[in-house]
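Fold it.
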Amino acid sequence: MENLTKENNEIANAPVLNKETLVSLVAEKTGTTKVQTRAIVEEIFASVSDCLAKGGKFQYIGFGTFHVKTRAARKGLNPRTKENLEIPAKKIPVFSPGKNLRDKVQA
């Protein structure tokens, strides 16, 4: 991040990195336009989403793995009416961080 402008350096150190700041940072680092970078970033996330929607797994060595986990059906309680209800099983996306990411966060 040594060649980032002061504005983008402040963005990079912000606690929340949203899509637009990600696009700005990647565009500056790679020397591409924000329009090109936005299209690439959106396609990456769309591809990962499509993979997970099909029940697949996305693995980026060193960063982590996204996969789908099935939550079992369970019994619940409506807090307002105190009525018992059945909460259906559902699929949820899960992220498991890789070793490099865990080490970087711990540093």
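Residues 3 and 75 are 55 Å apart (CA to CA).
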